[in-house]
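Quick look at the format.
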Amino acid sequence: MGSPVSPIVVNLYMEKFEKEALNSFPGTPPANWFRYVDDTWCRIKKTAADKFFEHINQVDENIKFTQEESQNNTLPFLDSKVIVEEDGHLNVDVYRKPTHTDQYLAFQSHHPLEQKLGVIKTLFHRADTIITSEEAKSNEHRHLENALSKCGYKRWTFHKALKPTDESKKPSKEKHMQKRKTTANATIPYIQGVSEKLRRILQDFNIGTSFKPYSTLRQKLVHPKDRVRKHIKSDVIYRLKCEHPQCRDTYIGETSQPLKTRYNQHCRATASKYSSAIYHHMKHHRGHSFRLETTDVLDREPRWYERGIREAIYERIYNPTLNRKGGLRVELSGTWDSTLPPPKGQ
């Protein structure tokens, strides 16, 4: 489970399985047999249905089927519903489970516009390709417009998503721009209003851009591994806070070592005169102390240079009082001022 090759292997085995099951059945085999991975749709005589069902469940002891017969001349298969008309013709409609709630990606959600337009395109494409009756197709279009409108989609989004593309009407300059090949690709976190501007800038340099979620529920809620205890974490940016009730001095640093090792280095004198600011603070202020348990881990970054940048960013944000000027490995330029929140005095 989870391997990219799994669906291919499963499909190959199911092809072998169904070939053996159909060829070894002693009675009349199904007139139609359609399969998608492990879901099948077949047409067979009623007198042979039960025997065939027993037969396919005996071919492989590890593969067992369940069956669902047609009700009122209709039978669902995946997201389609096959309807047998009185004259024997088959019509296909979109099938929705009874538990379906018509809840789609909300238009106000933090996603790129093309993803939201893609929801409209996908649902209408399914209606246009699956449904065989023109009346049912019109009903499905009205249903989708109503359901998506409740999810916040405005009228203009339907026009934009479903607008037919006519290459002949595009200016020659635009054609040339579209044919221009990208020399590189960049994947950036999606931040509404910012990522779109970056994409337009990168397009001028023939760099294709794709977006990835900045924060997901999976990142917030799913933690299959036990959390690493704070004192053994490494490659971190941390903040030490003085425990004295009347002192608000803080220190921000970074380390590739376990946090406990770096904390112990802060708390002792060195052979040279350049002992840690933490050590000098406790030495010259009686009753002041720092504790590893209350140390904040602000971020983690295994790369040396990038960790220095993050340290400089947090130093700019929190404005620690014990950091010595010039002690940062990276000096942030003034360009960062418009993107970072104002300094937080401690």
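Next, a different chain entirely:
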Amino acid sequence: MARWQILLFEFDIVYVNQKTIKGSAIADFLASRALEDYEPLDFDFPNEDLMCVANAEEDSQEYHSWRLNFDGASNIVGNGIGAIIVSPNGDHPFTSKLDFDCTNSMAEYEACIMGIRTAIERKIKILEVYGDSTLVIYQLKGEWETRDPKLIRYQRLVLELIEEFDNITFCYLPREENQMVDALATLASMIKLNKLEDMKLIQISVYETPAHCYSIEEVENDNRPWYQDILLYVKNREYPN
């Protein structure tokens, strides 16, 4: 390197860094070498009103995330289970009475299994399972060990059933947020059914006012309602003339 420096010193050579190539230089270079068969890009999108393109098979209901809420009730009157499958199109409640002795945890497992089997019958592949039993949920998640011999078989059955799903998750839900299925399970546990007949459908209505309240619009001779004087007193503290 020293020898080359001595030989080149007499030529007064200066070394500078290469400048950055600007975008305009690249554009000029490409423009000067345009191809004869070049066709400009067409930026018009023929289906500009089309918002989404999806596969019909993937858009079917089995690929949507469904939700299952379950609960079981066990008391001195009887045992019952309830579940609700929440689909993209609405809720589907169902309940059953258990005609055998069981603990509260067994009733919870029975409710969970009933809901999972119903989901399998409807060919649901993605399911979120919610329950208010801490014991059952965390056992099914594998975070708690199952030691009760009565529950081990239930847990094994659930683990076999969930193989039918592409994705299934278990989540704990506080009891106050699981009221509907809790009411279904309690109703099933307390009601006495005839085994030869199915339980009739129950329709629940919402009344916003008491039954004894009704509106009175009696009009006096001067076309004023009967409560006109009371209204004026409440609003303006004016006594009737």
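Residues 56-62 have pLDDT under 50 and may be disordered.

See the schema section for token definitions.
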